[in-house]
Fold:
Amino acid sequence: MITPFDSWACPLDALPMKRVGNSLICPNHHTYDYTRAGYVHLLPVQLKKSHAPGDNKEMVQARRTFLNTGLYTPILNAVAQVTKTYIAQHPMNHRFVFIDAGCGEGYYTVGLIERLKMFVDKNISVLGFDISREAVMSASKRNKKFDWAVATNKKIPVIGSGADGLFSLFGFPVWSEFERVVQTGGFVAVADTGKNHLTELRRCVYERVIIKESATHPIPNGFTLLKEVPVCYQLSDMSLPVADALLKMTPHYYRMSADKYASFTANPPHTVTIDTVLRIYKRL
Ligand SMILES: C[S@@+](CC[C@H](N)C(=O)[O-])C[C@H]1O[C@@H](n2cnc3c(N)ncnc32)[C@H](O)[C@@H]1O
Structure:
């Protein structure tokens, strides 16, 4: 059973917040109203470095167009499998809290919730948040009733040690915060790209594509690496609109000259390599 998320902490003073009517309120009376779109804005100006941080509208729309094709379903399935295994190992009366930190336009958050609905006898809540308002507005269009917030990884608006699992999928981990919010025995799932990821697309952008080994990943404080799940496959028969959306959801597009983009649209790659890895860290 999916239940509302209720482990909120005030982004200003970190005190627990209660939902009263259409607002979240902390004991110091900091009040955050839900928008009509169904999300809550928990990114006070003090925590912003720019007027509109995070992904812009074009990137969000491109990501939605691409992810809606289902071509990243294997990555979603890997995330869901890790979560289901965790749930199955816990007692019946455990209340599960999962957080999608940097949820983008909500593809994985909603996909995960759909895949967890099978646990009808468990109490599960899921929060998706992102620093980009455009992304969260788009996520709340996927489902208004789910819990969505504009917030930053640098100050996650969640009570300490409250989460069973936290997902940082192609995002920007802030390990000190992940350590604070995830309970002992809980997990953080981090999706990252490997050295061959989108090679064919990158060849359309850069004169030389250097395939270098991925950076090493030191184990963060307070965690141990449980396992690495490679998710690697080829996309074939890609149409121009799909290849275009995939390109535009990456930073590569923003480094592309007009000439390169013209030759990409004239001759888009039909096969693209997906090379990703899901790393699961257990909170000690
Ligand atoms: C590559 S996208 C991935 C989005 C989503 N997890 C997915 O895989 O579809 C990275 C996301 O991180 C968000 N982001 C960047 N900095 C952030 C921060 N400090 N806190 C929360 N989200 C952040 C961006 O707005 C963007 O939506």
Q: What stands out?
A: The CA atoms of residues 75 and 231 lie 6 Å apart. The mean pLDDT is 96. Residues 54-55, 63, 102-104, 107-108, 130-132, 135, 152-154, 169-172 surround S-adenosylmethionine (CB under 6 Å).
